[in-house]
Amino acid sequence: MSIPLKSMASGLKDIHKKIAADYQRIFSQDGQGHCEARTTILRAVLDREGHFTVDELRDALEQAGVSYELTFLTHTLESFVHYGLVWAVRAEDCPVRYEHAHLERHHDHVICVRCGRIREIDAARPQRLAEIEQATGYRLLDGQVTVRGVCEQCLAGRPEVFPLSAGAPGEEVHVVRMELTGPERKRLIGMGLVERARIEIISRDGEAGGVIAIEQSRVAVGRAVLDRVFVQAGRAPQSVVSPRAVPLTKLGVGRRGRIVRITGTGPIRHRLMEMGVTRGANVFVERVAPLGDPIEVTIKGYYLAIRKDEAVQILVEP
Amino acid sequence: MVLFDATQTRQATVRAVIAGNPNCGKTCLFNALTGANQKVGNYPGVTVERREGRVRSSALEMTVVDLPGTYSLTALSADEMVARHTMLHERPDVVIDVVDAANLERNLYLTVQLMEMEMPLVVALNMVDVAERHGLTIDVERMAAVLGLPVVPTVGNRSRGIRDLLSRSHQVARATDRMTRPVTYGHAVDDEVDALAAVVAGDSGLAGRYPARWAAVKLLEKDEEIIRDMRAVAAQPAAIEAAAAGAMQAIESHFHEPSEVVLAEARYGFVAGIIRECVTHGNVSRKSVTDAVDAVVCHRLLGPLVLGGVVYLLFVAVFKTADEWHWLFGRSPTQWMQTLFAWLGKQADGLADTSPMLHSLLADGVIGGVGGIMAFVPLIFVMFALIAALEDTGYMARVAFVLDRALKVFGLQGKSIMAMIVSGGLGGGGCAVPGVLATRVLRDREDRLVTMLIAPLMNCGAKIPVYLMLIGAFFAERQAGMMFLLWLLSWVFALLSAVVIRKFVVRGAQAPFVMELPTYHVPTLRGVLRHTWSRTWMFIRKAGTLILATSVLLWSAMYFPRANTSVIDGRITALGTRAAEPEVQAQINALQRERQSAQLRHSVAGRAGAALENVTRWAGMDWRDNIALIGGFAAKEVIVSTLGVAYAMGDTESDAGGTLSAHLRSDPGWTPLRAFALMVFVMLYAPCVTVQIITRRESGSWKWPLFSMTYTTALGLLMATLIYQVGSAFGWGV
Fold first, then answer.
1. In terms of CA atoms, which chain A residue is nearest residue B518?
2. Residues B458 and B434: beta-carbon distance below 8 Å
3. B80-90 pLDDT tens trace
């Protein structure tokens, strides 16, 4: 599917000159300043192959002996985009990448959200566009598609089970295990961050943390959490929990439910299992202690008091 | 250790153990089996109580060990570890598995685990009467057939079914060919378990060490102890680990659950099958009494009120029976003990002239020390009895339920409140000795340790006279307010210490709080008394010996070296001829007190007190206070009297209280600030020797009493210094 950009034939140099001349004309018509500088930038852009960021362009110009303010460069590049001389590849959480526009050579991009590598894809546009026109009734003019992804190099460099921090924004993963302790663990379990839960990484906030969606709810989490929650790409192999399942703490006094999963691991799981808290068992919430914790339930015909910290790790179906 | 060695099994005495869930009536049954032939001790190194007894029947002798109640046999808690090691390493001839007939499903989970271990089992279907009342009909014969085990219906508290249970136990112990039915977990799991068991059985290092199928199941459950042991002794540990990993993966990919969950669920599946076959439910509504009681006792508003009442009654009962209720010929039991020891002390009086040192050793050291501790016995007996009764009824679990949230904040749990109250948490006296013992109701080791370490900060009855004396001297017009402040401070310090200890010393996450709330039972008097007596007797025996040693030690510190008092002696002798005249007698008494004071100053304790002045000066304490406080290590009761001696104020307690107060008030070296700093120090510093010894016994290590002594003294010194220095700087109370 993907076709890397082929090297340019030397004949294109002439075209570049023509474009530069075109631009100077258009430019002076629009009455913008710094004509000289902008032309120099355009030349540099036309000489570059492949995709580049503003920073990369600035470095290249500096090596050639000219230096410009970053804002000026950005502004100029965006004006090139406006005139159709340059295409911009924009994807969430990645710096914008530019390439010079080749008239008549439309293509789409896949961009790696982790390392920013871009590949061009020829998405068999004519047929696809015709299909879209037929389906929508629109007459299509132009457009570019940028598909986000994780490149093969990044995938190869990451183990099958990896910490959330090694995930990329937009990636859908499921929890394999958590190495969290204390109140943070309880808070997240309470929000549904349990084994096999589906997680989408919404955004990354650099090294500081990020926003993730646990099933349906969004949570801002710190870096420490991202490093300690281990996930695997894609959904869990078999999701046995119905969407109606709630933590035992949410069931409410006087309500009955059936246990569908115990999400805790280690000693707490053993403890619960030996007390008869197993999948399929029926629980009835008798009461809540005077100070709101623990709760008392009936299970397997006897009374059990259980702290809320532990009870949130029991998912029940009302 | 080889498990199935046929040569070892046939002995004259049958060794039986009783296993079962907590609250299944196990101890009741144990009492019914053994009668009064019991001894109670501790398992070495752990705080788990070991109860052992003897059964004598016509045919043969039988010893019975009552294992701690456990829900399973994983190696996660001290109780479970003890139960499991007893099974594996003591190899009892028969295991009597007590199951609560009214609560079969969860109780049989343990039975299944015992079957996995291929133990020689007899199932005692206990409390069948309760089950019947709940409308359950159990087909005992069918159950025996399905389980492949003898099943005996019993009622422990009425001694029903005991003879039958004994004879079946003998049969099982005597049987040469035990046929235990293997537990089945369903085809998919069974295949993996059997394959792994074959690998285990084929390993030359492991074969015969454990039942192969049990070892296989434990490996699949990722049981750390077995994995460690396997790595150490197996001939080819790598091969076994590979086989286990393969089996685990096969199970997990089939069930999409961790293998230990699959196995636990399979056990419950097995149990559910038995219940379907053997139990029919009637239409009687279950547990109506428990429901009704809990509706009040665990109620949002009434619950805490009831708890407050029960705690108050417990406190009053323990201390009033022991000290104030003169229901036995006009004296309280504690006073009887004191009278007894005072009488014993008098017997030694004959030695006073011929050999004053021996007299002092016997009267002050031995009789004073041991007598001091024996005075606690009635109090401890009552405390144990009431706590045993509360535990037997099932109310103790409700206490934990109601209070858990409040104490969780401080890293404690609901049941800790009992120890705190008994130690003096109500502010009207108490004692940390029964307080530390009351921590036995806590199952989790960490919770228990923390409670044990902070309970002595409560204002026990022995600290009260110090407060009264100093408040009388310096805060006479604000007596109640000061007492309240001291009470408040003791709780603040105790709870904050709990937080700090939890954070830095006794670490580890709080144990998961998952606790059964047993149905209520009426405790039997006999059961409670037996329990109480055996615990009290253990206290007397073990604590008594250590107390004796430390009292002699402290006595020597205050007795040696002897001061040269010949000048004073000479004056006393000179006056001796005119002793009949009242004013001369008074002079003699004053001189005698002076002599005592000089001796005290000269002794090891006195020198230590003077040396300590370098540190304690900043908290406003001088050498006299220090000696009294050193004496207070033995028992806080002696602080006031030692202070009296140090100030040459006469040494009888009643005397010292009054005159000492007046003396200190007029002493220019004393200020209200100094008195307050001293009271705070007395509140906080080192628990008395008895508490330390009890802490040693209950925690299983000297580390904890040492830590307890160090941190409380450091905290006390810090606080007293802070109060004294800040107060002096601002000119408060000077």
1. A303
2. no
3. 888 898 888 88
